[in-house]
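REQUEST
  id: r-88c1
  op: predict_structure
  target: Acyltransferase
  payload:
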Amino acid sequence: MPLALRIHPTARAEIDPGLIERTEGLVEAGPGAHVILGRPRNFSQRGRLVVSAAADSTVDMAARCFFNGLTIRVNAKGAIHIAPDCTFNGAELVAFDGPSIRIGRDCMFSSEIRATTTDHHVIRDAATGEQINLPSDIVIGDHVWIGRGVQLLKGAAIGEGSVIGARSLVTGEIAPHSLALGVPAKVVRSGIVWER
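RESPONSE
  id: r-88c1
  status: 200
  body:
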């Protein structure tokens, strides 16, 4: 079954025709949204893609990515940018309330992964009424391996060449070429390299 498209007349969508014909799932683009989906590396029955881009949001997935399951949800001027040659085996990327998720080249995402730029509900200081849990960007450098079940919260920043161990929770910065794991994730080894 071809990819279903629900594109608002004022949205701008640039979707590879092969992706539309041979990928299952749904792409929605609201008023003023901009969606770019390049030609993937895979065209298998398991290649399922769901993209929901609300008004004035941006989704940009470069060519040569591979996905066995990828859900992208963006609203309120949020953005998700995925560089070429990334692989996704079951990830959900959520950029709500303005910030962005940026994923570098050649990243590898295992299954049951969730990245979100917001807590989805506001927490305020009781005395001042000021919001204390503002949304924030998530940035992932080139050639990063995200293990199964990892959760990436707002403000996560993972340096290039790093590996995040299974079931870890990333809430802050991980230096390049680090092995990090735990809840919250902490660097347990530096100076690593990894191969597919």
